[in-house]
Design brief:
- It is an enzyme of class 1 (oxidoreductase).
- This protein is α/β, with parallel strands linked by helices.
- The protein has two domains: 4-93, Beta Barrel (Elongation Factor Tu (Ef-tu), domain 3); 102-248, Nucleotide-binding domain of ferredoxin-NADP reductase (FNR) module (Rossmann fold, 3-Layer(aba) Sandwich), CATH 3.40.50.
- The chain is built from six helices and twelve strands.
- The chain has helices at 76-82, 121-129, 154-163, 187-192, 195-200, 217-230, and strands spanning 4-14, 19-25, 36-43, 48-55, 65-70, 89-93, 108-116, 136-145, 168-174, 183-184, 209-215, 244-248.
- Strands 4-3-6-1-2-5 form a six-stranded antiparallel β-sheet, with helices on one face. Strands 10-9-8-7-11-12 form a six-stranded parallel β-sheet, with helices on both faces.
- The protein is globular and about 55 Å long.
- The two termini are 24 Å apart.
C-alpha cells in the first residue's frame, strides 16, 4: 500500500524559465538517499491525477523535501508545478521508490557519479547524507549541462567538496558554450578522448571504478555503450555484480 498524501508548498525557486526547485513539507515515510517519489496534481477537467516521478534532492535527515525539476514546454504537470504558490497543496506518494542508492553499489576505489541536468538531484541527496561512502577512496561528481548558468547547485557542490576534505572531486561540463570553468562537450566524447580522466588525474577501469549514470537517456545510452565496448564494463545487478548502476530520468 502506497497512498497519496497532501504536500504543502513551502517555496518555489525559479532559477530560469525552464529550471526550478520545489520545496515541500509532507508526512512521508523515511526514504533512502538516491530514491525517488511521485508528485501529482488533480486534473479537474479529466477527473484524474497527473503524476510523474522525481528524485529527492534533500538528505533523508532534512525536514523539508526538495525536488529539482525541468519545465517542459507544453508539459501539463511541470507547468502546473512551476506556477504553484506558497501554501498550495499537491499530492505526493507516502513511500519512496528505487534502488539508485549506496547500499546497492559495491565497494571500489573510485565512485564516478555522472549526471546531466536535473539528474544531479539523487547524488546531492546521497552526498548530503554521507552514509555508506566510506567504501570508496575517491568520489567524482560530474555535472553536465548546456550552459554554465544552468549549474544551479554548483554552490552546494562546492560546499560538499570542502566538507569531504579532498575525497570528493567536482567536474562540470558544458555542451553549448566554452568557458574557463568547465570542460566543453558531451560526456561520451570526453570519455572517448580521455579528456575527463586527464582533467581529474584518475583512470576508469574495471579494477578500480564503479560508475553511476543519471539523467538524459541519450547520455546514458552512449556512455554505457562506450564503457561496455572500450572499458569492458557491465551493468551491476544484485544477482550479478558489475561496474555500472543506471537511473533513467525520463
Amino acid at each position: 500500500m502506497n497512498p497519496w498524501i497532501d504536500a504543502k508548498v513551502l517555496t518555489i525557486k525559479k532559477w530560469t524559465k525552464n529550471l526550478f526547485s520545489l520545496v515541500l513539507q509532507a508526512p512521508i515515510s523515511s526514504f533512502r538517499a538516491g530514491q525517488f517519489t511521485k508528485l501529482a496534481v488533480y486534473d479537474k477537467i479529466n477527473k484524474k491525477k497527473i503524476q510523474r516521478a522525481y528524485s529527492y534532492l534533500n538528505s533523508p535527515n532534512q525536514k523539508n523535501l526538495e525536488f529539482y525539476i525541468v519545465r517542459i514546454e507544453n508539459g501539463y504537470l511541470s507547468n502546473m508545478l512551476y506556477n504553484l504558490k506558497k501554501e498550495d497543496t499537491i499530492l505526493i506518494k507516502k513511500n519512496a521508490f528505487g534502488f539508485f542508492t549506496m547500499d546497492e553499489v559495491p565497494s571500489n576505489e573510485i565512485l564516478w557519479m555522472f549526471a546531466t541536468g536535473t539528474g544531479i538531484g539523487p547524488y546531492l541527496s546521497i552526498l548530503q547524507e554521507g552514509k555508506n561512502l566510506e567504501k570508496f577512496k575517491n568520489i567524482v561528481l560530474i555535472h553536465a549541462v548546456r550552459y554554465q548558468h544552468e549549474l544551479i547547485y554548483l554552490p552546494l557542490m562546492q560546499r560538499l567538496h570542502k566538507q569531504y576534505n579532498g575525497k570528493l572531486k567536482i567536474q562540470t561540463i558544458t555542451s553549448r558554450e566554452k568557458n574557463q570553468y568547465s570542460l566543453y562537450g558531451r560526456i561520451p566524447m570526453l570519455l572517448m578522448h580521455k579528456t575527463l580522466e586527464q582533467s581529474l588525474n584518475l583512470t576508469i577501469s574495471t579494477e578500480n571504478s564503479h560508475i553511476m549514470l543519471c539523467g538524459n537517456p541519450l547520455m546514458i545510452k552512449d556512455t554505457y555503450f562506450f564503457l561496455k565496448n572500450h572499458k569492458n564494463m557491465q551493468k551491476h545487478f544484485r544477482r550479478k555484480a558489475g561496474n555500472i548502476t543506471i537511473e533513467n530520468y525520463w
